[in-house]
């Protein structure tokens, strides 16, 4: 299956051509990024000891765009993948297809003076953090994602922990104060999602400043569809200042309810789901000069819970460096970590989760104008997977395809 995917991408690279589309205020296009990935890792044997350590998958990113004049447009980003493709997929060795809508919105742009304003409505990537715009395999020089965007915490939106005994650091399990949960198979909270949230957003750029303000239904830590009962409007924002060309500093934040509506009747008297929000703050930096570029983020997240004197809080960060050796070759490195403060309740204190860190290195080679081959290795340091059990050797072949382009006016 993996070999077939690589053959398909090789053929796509042979037939990919630059779209010589006529400049028009009205048109439709569907550029694509197609990727095949293979990996060698013992993560596949976490639940199935007999599973092969060699696995792989396929990913297609489609970006349909409709331009309706000089102001109005519609845009979407749709992901279809055969897992295991991402490194975090490898904990489940079964091959399954998934599809996700990363963005799907209608937008209106205008230009007050030398600035640009864009208003969007639909399904939006979270305004929190600086990595989501680099989620495409052509924009991410490495193969994995930073830990804050893929690491599941021992926290569940549909459960109310009894106290510190509910967390592994105290030797407990996934206990529940009221012995109630909606779905015990639900995955743990990821601090900030890479997928879409229903909402509206206003973007600004100009005079060295850029900013975004977003109101969504659902938290970046717990994305939900509009059809899900008990949704709350909440905010996220971000922005930055370009000190000089190639050097930008940014900040971002979000706050709002994250617990499942099924828990509303189990909360302490006089409180609601709004009484226990998830919050996040972040700082990001981007630098580029000559052959070198670097980016990094520091983030902190709080998850308020009833019955806790000190609720779960997590800090995460990463630093990434890329060096272009020749027009075809580059090297990239990323160091990341995620850790937590202790939780406290009823006079007891315990570790919320064990600290985890990762180190990833990768080399990239442009085979031609449309195809990028990436080879990398990741070291993962986690209490849950000692030694080399969590390490991954990976390879990706990424193809850019300029698909349908139609200027109709």
Helix content: under 10%
Strand percentage lies at over 45%
Report the major sheet. 16 strands, antiparallel, barrel
Mean pLDDT: 88
What CATH architecture label of the domain at 111-366 applies? Beta Barrel
Along the chain, the helix and strand elements come as HEEEEEEEEEEEEEEEEEEEEE
Q: Which class of the domain at 111-366 in CATH terms? A: Mainly Beta
Terminal CA distance: 42 Å
Q: Please, how many helices?
A: 1
**Largest sheet, spatial ordering of strands:** 2-3-5-6-7-8-9-10-11-12-13-14-15-18-19-20
Q: What is the CATH topology assignment of the domain at 111-366?
A: Porin
Q: Got a strand count?
A: 21
Task: Indicate the radius of gyration in whole angstroms.
Answer: 22 Å
Approximate shape:
globular
Low-confidence stretches: 8-22, 169-176
Comma- or semicolon-separated keywords:
16-stranded antiparallel β-barrel, 409 residues, 3% helix, 21 strands, mainly beta, 1 helix
